[in-house]
Amino acid sequence: MVSTEPKKDLRVVGTRPVRPDGVDKVTGLARYGADVKLPGLLFGRMKRSPHPHARILRIDTSKAEALPGVMAVVTNADFPRPPDGIVNLGELSVNGNFLLDNVMASNKALYRGHAIAAVAATDIHTAEDALDLIEVEYEALEPVLDIREAMQRGAPILHSGMTTEELPAGVKGDGPETNIARHVELSKGDVAAGFREAEVVVEREFTTGMYHQGYIEPHNGTALWKKDGQVFIWASTQGQYEVRDSVALLCGIPPSRVCVEPVEIGGGFGGKTVVYMEPVAALLAKKSGRPVKMIMTRQEVFEGTGPTSGTQIRAKIGAMRDGTIRAMHAELAFEAGAYPGSPFTAGAMCAFGAYDCENIYVEGWDVVLNKPKVAAYRAPGAPAAAYAVESVMDELAERLGMDPMELRLKNAATEGTRRVDGATFGPIGAIDTLKAVQDSDHYRSELTEPWQGRGMALGFWFNVGFESSAYANVNVDGTVSLVLGSADIGGSRASIAMQFAETMGIPYEDVKPLVVNTDSVGFTAVTGGSRTAYAGGWAAYEAAKDVQRQLEARAASIWECEPEAVHYDADGVIRGPQDKQFTFKEIVAELPHTGGMLQGRADVATDTHGPAFAVHLVDVEVDPETGKVEILRYTAAQDVGKAVHPSYVEGQIQGGASQGIGMALTEEYVFDDSGTMRNSSLLDYRMATALDLPMLDTILVEVANPGHPYGVRGVGEVPIVPPLAAVANAIYAATGARVTRLPATPSRLLEQLLDEGLTS
Amino acid sequence: MVSTEPKKDLRVVGTRPVRPDGVDKVTGLARYGADVKLPGLLFGRMKRSPHPHARILRIDTSKAEALPGVMAVVTNADFPRPPDGIVNLGELSVNGNFLLDNVMASNKALYRGHAIAAVAATDIHTAEDALDLIEVEYEALEPVLDIREAMQRGAPILHSGMTTEELPAGVKGDGPETNIARHVELSKGDVAAGFREAEVVVEREFTTGMYHQGYIEPHNGTALWKKDGQVFIWASTQGQYEVRDSVALLCGIPPSRVCVEPVEIGGGFGGKTVVYMEPVAALLAKKSGRPVKMIMTRQEVFEGTGPTSGTQIRAKIGAMRDGTIRAMHAELAFEAGAYPGSPFTAGAMCAFGAYDCENIYVEGWDVVLNKPKVAAYRAPGAPAAAYAVESVMDELAERLGMDPMELRLKNAATEGTRRVDGATFGPIGAIDTLKAVQDSDHYRSELTEPWQGRGMALGFWFNVGFESSAYANVNVDGTVSLVLGSADIGGSRASIAMQFAETMGIPYEDVKPLVVNTDSVGFTAVTGGSRTAYAGGWAAYEAAKDVQRQLEARAASIWECEPEAVHYDADGVIRGPQDKQFTFKEIVAELPHTGGMLQGRADVATDTHGPAFAVHLVDVEVDPETGKVEILRYTAAQDVGKAVHPSYVEGQIQGGASQGIGMALTEEYVFDDSGTMRNSSLLDYRMATALDLPMLDTILVEVANPGHPYGVRGVGEVPIVPPLAAVANAIYAATGARVTRLPATPSRLLEQLLDEGLTS
What are the backbone dihedrals phi and psi of residue B719, each rounded to the nearest 5 degrees, phi first? Predict the structure, then answer.
């Protein structure tokens, strides 16, 4: 559709300008959800279930409603019932009943922290007092918190009527009902024949914990429900249109009646793509006739929002003695939390996505259990899958007596490789990225001390496309305000403005990007799937082209020549007959007196996103007395297509890697037997911080995405895919212990080292 | 350019739907300037000159700056000096130095209330206290407050270096300097020959007072000057782009560095087209590093903002015995206030604009004097001119023994009449409107009581075009949000949305109009000149056509046919081959899965606006003991082109008429000898209220403007043109006194009746 080679002479794309929102953020002007203030604003609070599994027999809100200062109370019964089945609304494709019941429980509470009712009051203390006055009569039910138990027949069942024939091996018991919500099978070739051929086979099972995205800013939402039925929502979200459509669905009104203003977002990482507070605030606002603001506490964030799935994954790879892989098989069981919807399909797609193998079979299960409903988290499903597969690859290399790098180079996917999901790769950078690491100083260095080890892993993420809009408003002084519909979670204002400036041949500083509410610009899909710099940049490119066409026509009318004789060149100069020319600023200065200013618009539905590959190399040192793992050195290489703003790309890589290191070593939800999370604060939920990590080195590999004007491919997600495996492989190299359960916390690793006689 | 006949089968245009901003306004949600609240907001106040004319010898702000709570003080010296001469910037074409010096005086204070300095403090009381601590040393100069005196040689001179050769007759004295800023001459034919031919000649001189627009909401402005140099302004304005460009000019920064958010406006009537507080708030914000809000008191509104010009006008008309007018001559002297810029040219254009006469000569002078600089006020300049001309027409009819209606019908302009400014009328409604009044029940009724009288007058206003933008965002549920750049001062959200809905063939309720800030939509000229429903509607029409073209292409791709085989029809149905069709909602439902949503954009620079005519008929009763005039009955007929929303059109007519009645009878600035306004409150400045008036009847005459898709011509201004003359003529009919000075207050009229022996 567009140039298949990136331009060689880019002026703006590839530079590192100042971010347009930076000053607002460091001076405190940027407006976050908590900063929203409105006349008559009420404060909303949620009452949440103390039980991980319980039938709700009765909710009596009368005492709460009678408390002075309480202006409205809502429960699930106040929401209209969504249509049954999957609802398609804008970009939404959801089971409306599950969405609603997760926002506020109907007949059953399915996890501790599940919202039961909400109160809006004139101040937050009154709202909290009112929560205590809401009487809820529960019938406590036996919870199921372990994915293995949840899959068994006879386990406590969360949703009546859920049945499946596609059970994993080893499921025992009977009864038609199950907690397995969905099943997926992906295959190519003949995997059984492949394993028969294979000379070396390695198979192992792995478990990962439940990890939260750990964004700094808690979820929040403020709603104003006007008397004419128009609803205005301020939301900290990655997808204001998704919030719009979700609120509309749950409140039973058309999407156009809801306008969502995306306030600044203090981190999302996938977790801010679903609604929690927004529809409740809307209904409280409707009932009270006043605006309502709700902000979660940190404990609510942990207990009431979506982390990523805990997983149990079995991976099996068979190879010839020369290292040629003949068969790959994986079984993935993913925790969905209380309602179906884990990223098990994405995990299945990514498990072997980095490899070129004729025979692949992947099977996955989406399993409900009494934990918070999971949400997207950066490359959802892929880190756990890569952990299993890349650990087995490491073991396979050892069994083959091959260098792990060589094994991967021999089998890595290349252009033309057909994936297990049916897609065929175009130009991709798996091998280039492996070689970039192989050529690195880090790779060539040696580790000499005992208890030190090096690990590597290869990660794949497919990236997505979807729809983006842009509206470019040419200003009289020869600048452009660029109106966007993408929430800016990590620098998209800058990266999209840069692509616009590049296309127009004007300075980056002359483009002012704006993120506006859902009424004010065209539909734009969620900021996620590593799509925004890619698809948003494309929309900006097309909007610039629309401006250029109009400027050419204007120049033709000024020069009194045919439009075909005029061309807007990449250097920002319009050229016409007889060496006539205008710079952009010159022609803009003519606009007011030759027909007025002009604007460009674009709405693109993109599907030529390029997949991304990452190779991470890590050195660790394990303390044999405590089991504590220290990261000594870390290098992350990645095929970034074209790094629009290299500093942001490096930041994405470092951020993804550090989150992955946290998953590998320190983070996870810890539940007690009663189903209560025991570490629901950022003090106890131990993410890797700058103090825990060395500088993370990055290597940017640019294999242009031919499906984008500037060769851009998504960069934000794949850096979280390899770290779990890379760290586990490094621990093995340092200790001889093959870690099959993450996080490898000090106590857990020490126990394994002691069990396996590797330390004493 | 477009259909020359209005469509006959309009579904939306011409109906009376609910206004989209109505609920917000009646429930208090609408945000006006006073409602703007920001963290760290400071409050600004102005120090103003107590002298109408003084040299400023010294300003010492040090004591004010030292007052705790004062965060910034600015004077004229803090502003960069604008470039000399006329600056063209966006729609601005102004003398930057005059603009700046009116915002804040430089070396001289030129009227009482002239801003001298401003303070921003943490609360408004501290700011006011600080004003008293600013020491200003003045050298008081003799003021000139009367336009006759101001034009004389030897009068106190406001601006050194101002000279002209084009002095009115009767100017005495000597010296090269003058207060006459500009002069204009318009002529056609041979007016001297015309008067020689004429068998009856009437000549008379008239004076009008200085009238304020009387908007309910005082001027205000809030500014935020960010650390990165971006400036954000909240303004109650008719033209957010004009505010943007003015603030940029006065602060010495590019327009794109300023973003103006138009908050709701509590009345403007032309007076909110210039900046007063906004640049000062901006500079205070820059100096203090915090946002600053400024709101005028009512006294400041009267003393520190622009009313319309007081005028002195001589009109002379000569006719044949059969009523054929042979010559028309007028001399107009307009008070500009302290800086040049009265609407004297518009007055000159409009004086005889309603008539078809071969020989016309009009001369005008723009005169500065020590009163506030005038601003636009509804049909600027035309009401005073029409007062003079229509009074003379009334007297001429009497002298000819002709019915005033017949005299006007005989001489009214028609299609093809060439105006004195050179333009030639297209289809116009002067005669239709006269006949509509002639056919009215009011006209046919009789007055029988003594001291009652009937007057009529014909008014003309040329209307303007200019540039408007629109951006139409199609929503997934088959509605459209319509993004506009026009401040909505009187229903333009509704009238533009109606034209969009009409064009798209969809319900009005499915269009959601939005007024956004200057960064977020294309340049749109000021809401004034009766241009907004006309040009904004046209932009909406073109944006709808842009949507339709894209929908046709999409339908063609769905139907797999040529785009030429698909047509979007006026009923909102897209039709293709083999009777295939989609309603608008049906095709929109297909968009998400066939290439994404779409938007339309338009930026039109219009020049086919249709001129407007109004005929007002009024019955009065004069109390011979007090001189008080009571309005008994009032009928206003107007050629409205096509009444988009008839209720709004009627409201515009009633509003204009009632303002004109106030000018005729009760309102004016009253100055004492020291140059102090003595009635600077809405209690003492007596506008006509609902209690003073009967129901004002309206007659809508629709002579389509062939230069607009729906025949729209501006309606907002011309209704203020005839009332002054109509009331004066009615007073003459009731009393026999020819009123040559307005307002005809009871005391003034009683004095005239006594002087002329008409009462005792």
Answer: -65, -15
User: Angle of helix A404-411 relative to helix A382-400, nearest 10 degrees?
Assistant: 110
Q: What is the DSSP letter of A747?
A: H
Segments in chain A below pLDDT 70: 1-8, 90-91, 172-173
| Chain A 205-244, residues with CB within 8 Å of chain B CB atoms | 224, 226-228, 230
Write the pLDDT tens digit of every residue in A135-149. 999 999 999 999 999
Q: pLDDT tens, B559-590?
A: 999 999 999 999 999 999 999 999 999 999 99
The one-letter code for the residue type at A3 is S
Cβ of B692 under 8 Å from any chain A Cβ?
Answer: no
Nearest to A597 among B27, B467, B600 (CB): B467
Query: Which tokens in the block code for residue A677?
Result: 């999370």
Short-list B525, B523, B468, B532, CA closest to B494: B532
Q: Look at strands B220-225 and B231-235 and give their pairing.
A: antiparallel
Query: What whole-number distance in Å separates Cα of residue B372 and Cα of residue B236?
Result: 20
Tens digit of each residue's pLDDT (9 = 90 or more) over B13-66: 999 999 999 999 999 999 999 999 999 999 999 999 999 999 999 999 999 999
Q: Please answer yes or no on whether B592 and A483 come within 8 Å at the CB atom.
A: no
Q: What is the per-residue pLDDT for B464?
A: 93
Contact B519 A473 (CB under 8 A): yes
Report how far residue A340's alpha carbon sits from residue A424's, in angstroms, rounded to the nearest whole number: 29
Q: Which residues contact A732 (CB under 8 A, 6 or more apart)?
A: A391, A394, A453, A455, A738, A739
Please give the share of chain B, as a percent, with pLDDT higher than 70: 98
Secondary structure tally for chain A: helices H, strands E: 20, 28
A450, A205 contact by CB (below 8 A): no
Contact B226 A23 (CB under 8 A): yes
Find out whether B21 and B124 touch, Cβ atoms under 8 Å. no
Nearest CA in chain B to A26: B227
How far, in Å, CA of A82 to CA of B608, rounded? 51
Let me know: does B69 contact B122? Beta carbons within 8 Å: yes
Q: Is the pTM of this model over 0.90?
A: yes
- By residue count, chain B amounts to 760
Q: Which two tokens stand for residue B49?
A: 């000159």
Q: Is A575 helix (H, G, I), strand (E, B) or coil?
A: strand
Whole-angstrom distance, CA of residue A225 vs CA of residue A231 = 4
- Report the alpha-carbon distance of residue B657 to residue A371 in Å, rounded: 70
* CA atoms of B187 and B195, how far apart (whole Å): 14
Say if strands A180-188 and A135-140 run parallel, antiparallel, or are unpaired.
Answer: unpaired
Count CB atoms within 10 A of the CB of residue B132: 11
pLDDT of residue B8: 66
Residue pair B446/B439 in contact (Cβ under 8 Å)? The answer is no
The reply to whether residue B601 touches residue A471, judged by beta carbons under 8 angstroms, is yes
On whether ipTM exceeds 0.90, the answer is yes
Answer with the residue of higher pLDDT: B305 or B5: B305
- Residue among B631, B638, B595, B598 nearest B616 (CA): B638
Half-sphere exposure of A293 (CA within 13 A, CB side): 19
Interface of A with B in 90-149 (CB under 8 A): 90-91
Nearest-neighbour CA in chain B from A566: distance (Å): 21
Sheet holding A466-474, edge to edge: A511-515, A480-484, A466-474, A599-606
Q: What is the widest separation between alpha-carbon atoms in chain A?
A: 90
A479 and B516 within 8 Å at the Cβ level: the answer is: no
Phi, psi (rounded to 5 degrees) for B429? -115, 25
Q: Is A592 on the interface with B (CB under 8 A)?
A: yes
What is the C-alpha to C-alpha distance for residues B566 and B561, in angstroms, rounded to an integer? 8
Q: Which residue of A has its CA nearest to B521?
A: A473
- Give the C-alpha separation, A374 to A381, whole Å: 11
